[in-house]
Automatic annotation (TrEMBL):
Organism per entry: Rhodococcus maanshanensis
Top-level EC class: hydrolase
Region entry Large ATPase domain (RuvB-L), spans: 7-187
Catalysis: reaction(s): ATP + H2O = ADP + phosphate + H(+)
Family annotation (SUPFAM superfamilies): P-loop containing nucleoside triphosphate hydrolases (SSF52540), Winged helix' DNA-binding domain (SSF46785)
Function: The RuvA-RuvB-RuvC complex processes Holliday junction (HJ) DNA during genetic recombination and DNA repair, while the RuvA-RuvB complex plays an important role in the rescue of blocked DNA replication forks via replication fork reversal (RFR). RuvA specifically binds to HJ cruciform DNA, conferring on it an open structure. The RuvB hexamer acts as an ATP-dependent pump, pulling dsDNA into and through the RuvAB complex. RuvB forms 2 homohexamers on either side of HJ DNA bound by 1 or 2 RuvA tetramers; 4 subunits per hexamer contact DNA at a time.
Protein name as annotated: Holliday junction branch migration complex subunit RuvB
Chain segments carrying region Head domain (RuvB-H): 261-357
Region listing for Small ATPAse domain (RuvB-S), in residue ranges: 188-258
GO molecular function terms attached to this record: ATP binding; ATP hydrolysis activity; four-way junction DNA binding; four-way junction helicase activity
Swiss-Prot/TrEMBL keywords: ATP-binding, Cytoplasm, DNA damage, DNA recombination, DNA repair, DNA-binding, Helicase, Hydrolase, Nucleotide-binding
Residue sites binding ATP per the record: L26, R27, G68, K71, T72, S73, E134, D135, F136, R177, Y187, R224
């Protein structure tokens, strides 16, 4: 719309700010409002209700899973179900033990302390956290060298909720101090469809049933992506159609944004393409793949790979990552006879037959 570059970029900047506000407005606010993850919801319901019955604070809770599946939303829900307040911080923000001590000493009894990306917490803060989680106290070291003294400090009983995209990167002692771990898994298309229809209701968007199925199928099993696609499709419908999102409008919009039938984005496609074209289908290590596509190994491992494995495109084997027949076909290539058949959820310990022939 804007014909000068300056105007265009300011429009984009406004859109970005508005989008994050919208994301917050779309967060579910109670356990019953939370769509999908039935197991996690049931388990949490028991943990929270049990604690309420006993009149104490619930055990510390760890939530693990890929980005955008509702970990932060769930932490907020936990605090609101308990009727307490949520204190929010993140692993990278806790660089020194003092940062954590300040956070802990401000807690009020029953508070929920949410530490996002808890696997990135610095070592000294982590050690302080052990004691706080176990005994609700910390030892603050004052001074340096032989004159240093350690002052014990009481911490109000609290519940720690940690979120991580890499539970494997957590140290054993930290993991052991959580009483319950919630594993968030990808959502299936009908769940995403319900999430989309709910979001459309909140945003006042006219979203048809078939169109919601179309968007749900391309959302990589991830609510954050579903909501993002909905906003992009809404833009398209407002600008090029009459604001109503029909299936054809959704398809045309998603084509403009380069989202394919399975919801694979550019990075997913380059990972697949590198695996198949540069490494003959593998096996190849994640870090080698990451270098080949010019991305951080962490992003490839935590964002792309879980979905590609779930979609049956990549198999994890003890020798590295392997492209399944579905991956070759996705790229329009004929799979070699030895390529694994693929399918949902190929596990490390059960490599498909014929993989190593
Ligand atoms: N179960 C759900 N129902 C409805 N919307 C959800 C659900 N889970 C996540 N969302 C949406 O996805 C967005 C991202 O969720 P978030 O909790 O920030 O994910 P994470 O912390 O795991 O990255 C939220 O703003 C919310 O709009
Ligand atoms: Mg989050």
């Amino acid at each position: 719309m804007g014909d000068s570059a300056g105007l265009e970029s300011s429009v984009t900047a406004n859109f970005v700010a508005a989008d994050s506000d919208i994301e917050a407005s779309l967060r579910p606010t109670s356990l019953t409002d939370f769509i999908g993850q039935p197991r996690v919801r049931e388990q949490l319901q028991l943990v929270l209700t049990g604690a309420k019955l006993r009149g104490g604070t619930p055990d510390h809770i760890l939530m693990s899973g890929p980005p955008g599946l509702g970990k932060t939303s769930m932490a907020m829900i936990i605090a609101s179900e308990l009727g307490t307040s949520l204190r929010l911080t993140s692993g990278p923000a806790l660089e020194r033990a003092g940062d954590l001590a300040a956070m802990l000493s401000n807690l009020v009894e029953g508070d929920v302390l949410f530490i996002d990306e808890i696997h990135r917490i610095a070592r000294p803060a982590e050690e302080m956290l052990y004691l706080a989680m176990e005994d609700f106290r910390v030892d603050v070291v004052v001074g340096k060298g032989p004159g240093a003294t350690s002052i014990p400090l009481e911490v109000a009983p609290f519940t720690l909720v940690g979120a991580t995209t890499r539970s494997g990167a957590l140290t054993g002692p930290l993991r052991d101090r959580f009483g319950f771990t919630a594993h968030m898994d990808f959502y299936d298309p009908p769940e995403l469809q319900r999430i989309l229809l709910r979001s459309a209701g909140i945003l006042g968007v006219d979203l048809g049933e078939e169109a919601s199925a179309e968007i749900a199928g391309r959302s990589r099993g991830t609510p954050r992506i579903a909501n993002r696609l909905l906003r992009r499709v809404r833009d398209y419908a407002d600008v090029r159609a009459d604001g109503v999102i029909t299936r054809d409008v959704a398809r045309a919009a998603l084509a403009v944004y380069d989202v394919d039938q399975l919801g694979l984005d550019r990075l997913d496609r380059s990972v697949l393409s590198a695996l198949v074209r540069s490494f003959g289908g593998g096996p190849v290590g994640v870090s080698t793949l990451a270098v080949a596509v010019g991305e951080e190994p962490g992003t490839v491992e935590e964002v792309c790979e879980p979905f590609l494995v779930r979609a049956g495109m990549i198999a994890r084997t003890p020798r590295g990552r392997v492209a399944t027949a579905a991956a070759w076909e996705q790229l329009g290539l004929t799979p070699p006879p030895e390529a694994a058949a693929g399918g949902i959820d190929v596990r490390v310990n059960e490599p498909p037959q014929g993989l190593f022939d």
